[in-house]
Amino acid sequence: YNVGYLNIGENTINITLYNPTNSTINDLSLQFGQSNVSIVNNIIYIPYINPGESITIPINIIVQNGIYGTIYIPFTISYYSNSIQYNLKGNIVENINAYPEITLSGYYSDGTITINIFNYGNAPAYNLYVNAYCKNCILTPSQGYVGELDPGNSNSIVFTVNNILPNSTIYLTLYYTDI
Length: 179
Known about the structure:
The protein is an all-beta fold. It contains no helices and 15 strands.
């Protein structure tokens, strides 16, 4: 099993179980514990795996909006070999493909420009700031800092415009990290 990436919504990962022993393993059950994602097939039963045989099991995972980062899905494998019961525990480690989706809107009124910033994505934007530059005018400040902008949230930055001339153009550059 390799660490992978899950998207928001339904995903399928494949888990391969291998019997490296010289005897058949019987009554194998794979059970998933509590996690911040949903496992559609939470308990899987396999009657047996012959020596040297491997089987691949598709696992359906549902990731709700608002979950991001690295997740751990605990599991327990129970089986019998030579009439002795064995239990193995572990975690499936997955990363969530979640990104901020930032939009800007703005308006000018009485010598100020208000820039509204909204995160429509499914992950926070960190260290978010906007650099502003005006051709044919003076803007203060030249940078507005927001910091963290969580999904579904908005914030505003206000710039003061001085010495505005005809054909003035304002350039905005948005910066943020998503990790």
